[in-house]
Amino acid sequence: MSYKSSLGIALSGGGIRGIAHLGVLKAFGEYGISPKKVSGTSAGAIVGALFCQGYSPEEIMKIIHETKYFRLLRPAISWKGLFRIESLVDVFKDFFPHNSFSKLSIPLSVAATDISLGEVVYFEEGELIPPILASCCIPGMFEPIVYNSRYLVDGGVLNNLPIEPLQKDCDLLVGVNCNHLPAEKDIRNIKNLIERTVIMTMNYNVYSRISSCDYFIEPPGLGKFGVFDIKKAPQLFQAGYERAMNLIEQSPGLLELPYQTPLSAPQS
Q1: Which of 264, 239, 242 is nearest to 105 (CA)?
Q2: Pairing of strands 215-217, 172-176
Q3: Within 13 Å of residue 267, how many CA atoms lie on the same side as its CB?
Q4: Which of 12, 42, 109, 135 is catalytic?
Q5: Which residues have a Cβ under 8 Å from the Cβ of 27 and sit 6 or more positions away?
Q6: CB of 178 within 8 A of CB of 161?
Q7: 172: exposed, middle or buried (C-beta count within 10 Å: 0-12, 13-18, 19+)?
Q8: Do residues 116 and 151 lie in contact, with contact meaning Cβ atoms separated by under 8 Å?
């Protein structure tokens, strides 16, 4: 009997809703399911990088909850964004002192958008922190990052489920989207309208990639949570965990594959 042996996991962007990814990774880890490679956009890039460094889902949850990212941001010096995301470089150095893709315990691919050329860029080697920050660089909120002669913003603009970098290295793909959008009869204000429109746009490029995934996980109703609502972290974590456990219970073939042993401690 033939089977697929190498697993790749693609993690979408979605602000604080990306904590749902941690619940998914926890469920997989409890069954000994570990990826050969991870790819991520925006929040998915942060979660993916910390996981590939060797931190457990619970440790990552604590890092996200205790790190006051917005208190550390500095105003932009141009009219191209409100804040400079590069002011978080020193924070990320605490978790990635090596600042190198090659030092991660699991290979990682990070998606960003070249706003000048209108194309997706995938980073898999060289410096780690600048691509992660670029992948999270929400247009309008953050000033674009200039890196490797590219003008970069959030990867979710063009690819919010970067499965493409996994296809050459993995023969079984799992896509995880943390932006499931429930029906809404009452659009209450302009903030609600804009946020919902952005999610719909990102989901469009996510759903166009579902057919390339062997498994697709989308915890229901996450779109109702605000992208910066850290107080909802436990609910988001649990939603991802329950959805992944449901998938595993309904897909016994996942447990028959020879995955790597899950990591237990981060490497410096």
Answers
A1: 264
A2: parallel
A3: 13
A4: 42
A5: 240, 241, 244, 245, 248
A6: no
A7: buried
A8: yes
Element (H, E) at 153: strand 150-154
What is the token pair recorded at 219? 């915890």
Distance between CA atoms of residues 51 and 31, nearest Å: 16
Active site residue 154: yes
pLDDT in tens, 152-201: 999 999 999 999 999 999 989 999 999 888 777 777 788 778 777 878 88
Given a contact cutoff of 8 angstroms between Cβ atoms, the answer to whether 51 and 44 are in contact is no
- pLDDT tens by residue, 136-152: 998 888 889 999 999 99
- Rounded Cα gap, residues 129 and 71, in angstroms: 19
State which H helix or E strand residue 123 sits in. Answer: strand 119-123
User: Quick one: 108 exposed, middle or buried, by C-beta within 10 A (0-12, 13-18, 19+)?
Assistant: buried
Catalytic-residue membership of 94: no
Q: How far apart are the first and last CA of the chain?
A: 40
How far is 178 from 237, CA to CA, in rounded Å?
11
Condensed to tens digits (0 to 9), the pLDDT of residues 226-242 reads 777 888 999 999 999 99
Residues in the chain: 268
- pLDDT on residue 74: 54
Catalytic residue, chosen from 34, 39, 135, 154, is 154
pTM: 0.89
Rounded CA-CA distance 182/199 in Å is 11
Spatial neighbors of 191 by CB under 8 A, at least 6 apart, are: none
Q: Is residue 264 predicted with pLDDT exceeding 70?
A: no
pLDDT above 60 for 75: no
